[in-house]
From TrEMBL:
SUPFAM superfamilies: L domain-like (SSF52058). The gene is Lrcc6. It comes from Malurus elegans. This is TILB protein. Keywords: Leucine-rich repeat, Repeat. The keyword Repeat applies. The lineage of its organism: Eukaryota, Metazoa, Chordata, Craniata, Vertebrata.
Amino acid sequence: FFSQLPSDSFKFLGWCDIEEHGVRGNQLHCPRVREGPSKEELFLRKEEHTLKRRQQVTDTEKWEKRLQENWENCAELNLSFQDLGDLYQVENFKRILRRLIRVEKLWLVDNSLTDLSAIRLPRCRELNANKNHFTSFKQLPKTPQIQHLSLAENNISSLSGIAELRHTPLESLVLKRNPCEFQERYRQLVFSNLPNLKTLDGIPKLPEDCSPPDVGFFYKMCTIL
């Protein structure tokens, strides 16, 4: 039998659950925002001793916590590696993303994210969503001011939907280690859909990238029997 350490009752608390400090979310560069286990999960783990402190939170304290989070005033935020293993944790994560109305630089690396299409980041200029589970450009958040977008190591197999980014000031795009990278005439297709793009996968736009794909080539082919 191992006795509980004094710190055990705090291990599932977020930074803003700790009393007697005035640190706000917009003052943190890389906060841990992952929610702790549910009440039922804690009972299964035989860690119900942590519930006493969590159950003391009143509705007023919840509101004060949200004010302290202050996500609305974050301009630069790193929410990578959050280990979102449960649905309620993903929902809480999206709740935070919906509040990022002023964020300009955002990192969401390695969070197993699959669909953020309902999220809008109106001022985001730089987004790093590497190492997630996106399969389509249509699953990305709405970023009308995006300039630098990195989606390396996702599972995007098609360039369908990429043209939606034409209406943004996008300058650089990273799609390394996505299946779409192996598509025939990949660079030409990307640049033809995004004529204002300057850099793809870290390589500046080259003269051979500017010519549109010869889609008529396939219609000129004939079969000789």
